[in-house]
Write a structure and sequence with these properties.
Blueprint lengths: L1 H6 L8 H14 L9 H26 E3 L5 H4 L6 E3 H78 L11 E3 L6 E3 L16 H6 L10 H12 L1 H33 L7 H6 L1 H5 L2 H44 L1 E3 L2 E3 L1 H6 L1
Helix pairs in contact: 2-3, 5-11, 7-8, 7-11, 8-11
């Protein structure tokens, strides 16, 4: 620092006024423009200007410093060396504050990103579960259509038998299946004991109930899925598809074992000749005729319920498809979901 004073022709410790006067005098003497920009004057002028700036800054800094002996006990705690500078104190405080927030937000952001990553993974799992639900709803529709078709076939078969019950024909309890050489006769009531439980697939639904996928769905869709898979409508469908017809079948079997066996002897309901040979006896059993009527009406009732249930499954499938499309159109940027459809509406 002594060399800088010397450059201005001053002694060390010169006042700010002396520094200012020396600089103004030398800057005029060494002005490069006035001296045709000769190299000597250009270099000398640059040294004078640099010395002046350094000494001026040092003077400002010295004026900001306070001797330790003049400080109170509190400020002495923050003093390094023999002088205390408010500028240095606040510079160090700002630096520490910036470093603190940098570390704090760095750790916080890291934890937040980890959480977002976990949420993102859950989001992918939920979307995959929604896709599986969509497939399962399609399987339920196929299963229901096949059930309705089978129920309609049995309903028509037993209804035809009921309507022909009183016909004066030895083959009244026989029907013909097929055409031409493939045609064959069989007794519709020989397959009367066959029950048809309604048991649609529900594996995916049962699994997603436990992993939070429902929180990812629309409330309306969640309600519809709950009704489809475990609601009262499904309960009554299952009751009317198995428990009720099973009770009708049990009455049919009990009638044969309690009455027909006693009065006819050996009952072989699986053979056509039995229904042919005992036609008049069976026609007079009005209990059995009414039993067939009950079975037909049960098929009518279950078919109506299944049509309603099917329309509900189809509606839920369409709603799920629209929600799935919406979720897949969202874009994730570093684990944050951006809803571009929402932005377009603004």
């Amino acid at each position: 620092m002594k060399a800088k004073y010397k450059t201005l022709g001053l002694k060390k410790g010169a006042s700010q006024e002396e520094i200012q006067e020396a600089y103004e005098r030398l800057s005029k003497e060494l002005d490069p423009v006035a001296n045709n920009n000769e190299t000597f004057f250009v270099e000398k002028f640059a040294k004078v200007k640099a010395a002046y700036s350094a000494l001026l800054t040092m003077k400002d800094h010295d004026e900001d410093e306070i001797p330790v002996k003049e400080l109170n006990w509190f400020l002495k705690l923050f003093t390094i060396g023999d002088k205390f500078s408010f500028r240095d104190f606040f510079d160090r405080a700002k630096k520490m504050l910036v470093e603190f927030f940098a570390i704090f937000f760095g750790v916080f952001l890291s934890l937040a990103v980890d959480q977002k990553r976990e949420d993102s993974n859950h989001r992918d799992d939920n979307i995959n579960n929604m896709k599986k639900l969509k497939v399962e709803l399609a399987e339920i529709l196929v299963y229901t259509d096949e059930y309705i078709e089978s129920a309609a076939w049995f309903r028509d078969l037993f209804n035809k038998q009921y309507e022909r019950w009183a016909d004066d024909d030895d083959s009244v309890f026989l029907d013909v299946m097929g055409e031409g050489e493939e045609a064959f006769a069989f007794a519709p009531l020989s397959v009367y004991e066959q029950a048809m439980p309604y048991d649609p697939p529900e594996v995916t639904y049962n699994s997603v109930q436990l992993d939070g996928t429902f929180r990812f769905l629309d409330d309306t869709l969640e309600h519809e899925l709950t009704q489809i898979y475990s609601g009262s409508t499904l309960f009554y469908i299952k009751e009317n598809a198995y428990k009720v017809p099973q009770s009708i079948i049990d009455d049919f079997v009990s009638r044969i074992s309690d009455r027909w066996v006693e009065e006819l002897g050996d009952v072989k309901a699986e053979y056509n000749y039995f229904w042919h040979d005992n036609r008049e006896y069976i026609q007079k059993d009005y209990f059995m005729q009414y039993n067939v009527y009950r079975r037909v009406k049960n098929f009518d009732y279950i078919s109506e319920q299944l049509q309603y249930h099917r329309s509900r499954v189809e509606g839920a499938s369409h709603l799920l498809d629209s929600i799935l499309t919406y979720k897949q159109n969202e874009i994730e940027i570093i684990y944050w979901v951006v809803d571009f459809d929402f932005l377009h509406t603004k």
